[in-house]
Structures are given as C-alpha cells and as structure tokens.
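Continuing the batch. This is chain 6 of the set; chains 1 through 5 are on the previous pages. Same settings as before, nothing changed between runs. Recording input and output for traceability.
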Amino acid sequence: MTASEAVRAGEAPGQEGARPSRAAVPSPGAPRPVARVLTPALVLALVALCLVSASVGAYHVPLGDLLASLAHRAGVGGHALDRVGESVLWNVRLPRVVLALLVGASLGCAGALTQGVFGNPLAEPGVIGISSGAAVGAVGSIALGIDVLGTWTVSVFAFVAGLATVLLVYALSRAGGRTEVVTLILTGIAVNAFAGALIGLFVFFADNAQVSQITFWQLGSLAQATWPKVLAVLPCALAGLVVAPLYARKLDLLALGERPARHLGVDVERLRLVLVLVVALLTAAAVAVSGVIAFVGLLVPHLLRMAAGPGHRFLVPASALGGGLVLVGADLAARTVAAPAELPLGVLTALFGSPFFFWLLRRTRRGQGGWA
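Output for chain 6:
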C-alpha cells in the first residue's frame, strides 16, 4: 500500500492495520429522526395520563378542580377543594400517581441498561437476581415476624436483600479479574432458582395471615402508596436516572462488541460493574415499595428500540419516560377496571406482557431465520 493509498484508507503511512482514532469512529447508536418527535410525545402523554389518573377513581375529582388545587398548593392562584376532596387528592391519589411514575421510570431505565450491558434486547433486570433477592428479603421478614422497623420493615429488607443478591451474583461470576456475560446470566439463573426455593420454604412455615400478606406483596401493588414511601424511593430513583444517561455513549460502543469497545477506550469491566450496581439500585428500590412487577423493564425498551433505533442516548431516558407512562396507566386500569375491587398490578402487567413477549420471540426467530 502506498502512502497516498494509506491516507485515503484512514491509516498513517507505515501503520497498516492501525486501529482508528476515537474521533474517526461513527456513533454506532445514532438515534433516528423519529426520536426527536417521540421524546416530547412521551412527556406530553405522561403528563396527561398523570392528570387523568389523579382525577379518576371511586371519588371523582374534576380536572378543573384538580388543576385549581395544584395551583393553590403551588401558591400561583387556584383554590382549595372541600375537606374530602383535598384529603383524597393529596393523601391518596397523588402519592400513588407519583410512586407509579417513579417505580415505572426506574424499571424502564433499568431494563434499557440491562439490555445494553448484556447485549441482548430480551434481557431484563430480574435475570441477575434483583427481583428474586428482594422477594426473599420481603417474604423472609413477613414469615419470620420481623418488625424492627415498623411499617418500613418489609421495604427495607427487600431493598437490602436485592442489593446483596446482585453483589453475590457478581462476585460468584468473576474469574481471573473478569466477568463474562454468559457466566453472569447463568449465575443469576442459579441464584433465582435458589431464591425461589427459599421463598417456598418461608411460605411453608408461614401462617394463614402471613401467607396472605406474602401473596399480596408478590403480586405487586401500589395500593398502600404514601408520601413517606415516595420519599423513600425518590433518592435511589433520582440517583439512578441521573447517572444512567451519562453512560449512553459507552453502551453504544459496547454494542460493537467487547473487544472493539476496549480498543476504543472503554473499560468494559468497570462499565459493567457500575451499570449492574445502577440497575440494582433502581430495581431494588422499585420492588421494595411495589412488590414484584414483571415485564415493564423488558417491553418498554424493546418497543422504543423498534421505533427509534438502538441508540442509548435516546433509549435510556426514553425508557424511563415510557416505563412511567406504562405503570401509571397500568395502575389506573388496576384500580378502575374491576372497581370497587382492585386488580394486582403485577398480575395485570404480566397478563399483557406475556403475550407480547411471545410475539417478540417469534418475531426475533423469523428475523434471524432460526435460533442456531
């Protein structure tokens, strides 16, 4: 190769095969133009759905009165509602809407990060044992009658157990100072199975009242949402949602493969550890206050990826918006579809998420011409 040919090929003379500079590498995850429309659409839809969810229920609060009460509390005009209306809106309805928004955003963002770290669009946070570990903590505290923290006992035990489980999975999957994705997933599957056995053991020794409480928690619900629970999950959710987009470009480079990402300056092992911890923080905090809610972290990022491409600069924040939108809508349906009864939120998301997951599997198989 001559010097002029080397220059045209992007190589310095005498450096055939040199790896390209970081600036010469195109972004592998550039968002499609539809992302510019989709992001504001998600924001508007989320605001509208939050207002509808706060208005609709057994005690109807007209939208005009709702806006007037919000303006009055903000000190920009409006007026207060009657005593019952103010109590229902500010002590029951709004905490539930805000908690659904935080939990959904956390699960959606955690799902996008998990799929990026594992390089698999069908991955979800539960694959590394976060949900099952949190369930062990919650079920164990209920079955053993532990009440050292009062009403916070179940949530705190679930959060701590979820984080501890992820750290255990990560420690068990390391070998030679490195962690391979396949080993991490297989370790997560083994830990999930062991956690399921522990949950079954706790249920076996629990009495009828405890079994009912365990079942209610495992099915997922926001029925007991309060402002203190919102404040409990808020720091973890905000920390994770702020940190996650900072790693979007590195996730785009990781999508090229581990070896190319390393050549482009990405510390893959450190990136994987940090993002696994962020996923654990988001998921454990969400599961601790809501119980197990399935498929949000799987379906939301996948739908957005289908619509706007795999670029994580769009996908990570949009998954948070989409997760909040899905869970606020699901919670609204859970408490209104079978009124005055309330459907378990986790059951509702699984009921609609499972068929969609099967459709994704069939679509992926057709697109690849088989699984081999």
